[in-house]
Amino acid sequence: MKDYKQYYAGSLSKVKESDMEKFLEKANEKMKSNNLEKLHISIEPKRATKELLKLLKQYNVVTVELEVKIANNYILKKYKANYELDDIKRASKLIKRSRLNLGYQLMVGFPDSTRIDEQESAKILIKFKPSLVRIYPVLVIEGTELDEAYKNNEYEPLILPQAIDRCKDLIYMFNKKKIKAITVGILDENNLEEKQKVIAGPLHKNFPQLVEDSIWYDSIVGKIKKYNNKVKEVRVEVHPTNVDNVIGYENENINKFKDLYLVDMQVIPNEKIKPGRSEMKILTIYED
Questions:
Q1: Which of 138, 61, 154 is nearest to 103 (CA)?
Q2: How many structural domains is the chain composed of?
Q3: For residue 156, what are the contacts with CB-CB under 8 A and spacing of at least 6?
Q4: Is residue 213 part of a domain?
Q5: CATH classification at residue 184
Q6: d(C-alpha 85, C-alpha 45), whole Å
Q7: Does residue 261 lie within any of the structural domains?
Q8: What would the pLDDT profile of 190-245 be if each residue is shown by its tens digit?
Q9: Beta strand 278-285 with 231-238: parallel, antiparallel or unpaired?
Q10: Cα separation of 188 and 206, whole Å?
Q11: What is the pTM assigned to this prediction?
Q12: Are 154 and 251 members of one domain?
């Protein structure tokens, strides 16, 4: 399917049936004003029907992202979702049959959700060969049931390093199956209702970068470990767009290499290297 420049119009989950066409008309206006070609929307699994998908195609929608959260019936029930695993599977098949791009929103850190639960969810969704997966950490928002559970010590949100690692787990799984169109998002507090705020959880304005930085760190560590000698200094060349990720947020990766491995790392931009790739040269080693 053609890779259109898409405008994300938002979620249809809370849009009334009677307001659906009005929503899509406005979305098309915004799409055109941004010089984009097609629309990308998200929706809860139960709302995906043949009739709706037909309407979406009439209004230039090419990507439908299912707000799945997690593909686990026990946790969905605990979370009081209004859909279950069968709804996710049915909606996924409908979208694929409609020749629309299928996307998913996944979350890590739900109550009673473990790393294994999240990985099992990814395995289920991989079978439908989605074009897009977005992964979010669960945050505790004031005034919600999760807020009450948190205050009663019935729920403990992930800390930032845990959230990064669990998002990485899923990214690696999708990448292994050549599902490359993955972005990692974080809640925009501007979208919260008036007077609401995030009171706990791994909230960080640069969360997507932190995950990407950590993936680069893993990659370079893996290359260094392949050398038999004790590495002292390395030069890593990457495309200019990847330099910040290799260095890490506030130089975190460079500092970790120095503190944990006693390795000094130089990061050099090189436009000849493809984005996402790297070339590494060992400059010096520790002598026995």
A1: 61
A2: 2
A3: 150
A4: no
A5: 3.30.750.200
A6: 9
A7: yes
A8: 555 555 788 999 989 899 999 999 999 999 999 998 887 899 999 999 999 999 99
A9: antiparallel
A10: 11
A11: 0.90
A12: no
Residue with tokens 């948190």: 150
d(CA 32, CA 111): 41
**Does residue 211 form part of some domain?**
no
Query: How far is the first Cα of the chain from the last one, in angstroms, to the nearest whole number?
Result: 57
Give the structural domain span for 145.
6-205
3-state SS track over the chain:
CCCCCEEEEEECCCCCHHHHHHHHHHHHHHHHHCCCCEEEEEECHHHCCHHHHHHHHHCCEEEEEEEEECCCHHHHHHCCCCCCHHHHHHHHHHHHHCCCEEEEEEEECCCCCCHHHHHHHHHHHHCCCCCEEEEEECCEECCCHHHHHHHCCCCCCCCHHHHHHHHHHHHHHHHHCCCCCEEECCCCHHHCCCCCCEEECCCCCCHHHHHHHHHHHHHHHHHHHCCCCCEEEEEEEECHHHHHHHHCHHHHHHHHHHHHHCCEEEEEECCCCCCCCEEEEEEEECCC
The tokens describing 188, both together, are 């925009």
pLDDT in tens, 125-167: 999 999 999 999 999 999 889 999 999 999 999 999 999 999 9
Q: How many C-beta atoms surround the C-beta of residue 1 within 10 A?
A: 9
- 142 and 15 both lie in a single domain: yes
- For residue 281, the domain's CATH number is 3.40.1260.20
69 in the same domain as 21: yes
- Same domain, yes or no, for 175 and 280? no
List CB contacts of 277: < 8 A, sequence separation 6 or more: 238, 239
